[in-house]
Structure prediction request, 220 residues.
Amino acid sequence: MEFFLDTADVDEIREIAAWGILDGVTTNPSLIKKSGRDFKQVVAEIASICDGPISAEVTAMDTAGMIEQGRALKAALPDNVIIKIPCTPEGLAATKVLTEDGTDTNVTLIFSAAQALMAAKAGATYVSPFIGRIDDTGHDGMNLIADIMDTWANYPSITTKVLAASIRHPTHVLQCIQLGAHTATMPAKIFRQLMKHPLTDRGLEGFMRDWAEVEKAGNA
Ligand code: E4P
Prediction:
């Protein structure tokens, strides 16, 4: 499974990239706003920190505008930048054209298995179903991941990867893995929570305390 960071904060990306297990980064217009930085500059810096796919989102609403922005972003940014496109009819058409250009895409804002399937038919490299935003409405976002994986199982020729997004807690990640999702994108906080266990900390403290005594006794 691939683990992506869902942020445009380069300090967080450096921190998690240093762990050696970061496979990519997703951004969106809201995350770019939060960074307070120039869109292309910050995406270029992210792409220099992590050599996996870095999603940069188009903001045009029409097909021609999305294609133009996607091509301009590909021309201006490092090769590992991929184009994130909203799951609308206009977005599907843009995905098809950019895919024919040889550009990798991430079709985002997916809330049904039908939308995921349509995006796959358009040639999307990734589809991004939003788990947490469904949970926020009082429904179970994980059912969407299950529905998409069931659909994919019927059509082994589909190569589009399912990128679970809008992840709110570590259990979401584990459930996505159990359902066979290819990728999960999550905030740095979730990466840290996935690694944290009080018994690991307590066990290490005990080992270090005992090792200090081994050293003190001259037996190290
Ligand atoms: C990922 O590509 C999305 O931009 C992101 O996961 C959305 O998460 P949110 O619902 O926490 O904003």
Observations:
- The chain has a mean pLDDT of 98.
- The pocket of erythose-4-phosphate is lined by residues 6, 26, 28, 108, 128, 130, 132-133, 165-166, 185 (CB under 6 Å).
- The CA atoms of residues 105 and 114 lie 18 Å apart.
